[in-house]
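quick one, 220 residues, struct below
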Amino acid sequence: MKELKAALFDLDGVVFDTEPQYSVFWGSQCRLYHPEHIGLEHEIKGSTLTQIYDRWFSGPLEKERDIITQRLDAFEQQMQFIYIDGFEAFVSDLKKHGVKTAVVTSSNVPKMESVYRQRPEFRQLFDAILTSEDFAFSKPHPDCYERGAKRFGAVPSECMVFEDSINGLRSGRASGAVVVGMATTLPVDTVRELSDVQLTDYRGMDFEKISEIFARFTEK
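---
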């Protein structure tokens, strides 16, 4: 039986319940610049800012990128970073039992500085924090989770990935990790298609239970 060596967490919608806030921000920008594409703010979930700009704000809209970035920076300064129910107890129990923990996020360093200011305890919850600056390729490429596993001397098949977005789930699955789909942002049926097990929050989840799930999907 393989040992669970590391738990790799996306940030928004997985550690923090921030996705509704981002939907508000990107909804306002998408209605302003792409009124013809209803629901675009939901399609871009899990994309990096670069990916969003390259696909949706190129050509004539490229000149709008600076002002959108300024609006986003201001928005993130006032965001509320509220943990998904049960997360702190769950991640602390994992660490107590020797499982390495990491944030693997498409967010950048300036965004994380906002997190640290509001949540000074945040860094102590994890053994590593990897941001967009640490990756050669963005989700859904598996690069970020391959690097997350490597940080702990592991391979992805010895890890569990916790994700909520389409791109993130695809990234975790492509890496070969056991994927936990967090149904915090998208409907559970959508998340189910790209994950091994689904959760709505972490209440009642601990090292023993997650280890049983991991064993179920890694038994030979």
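The two ends are 8 Å apart (CA to CA).
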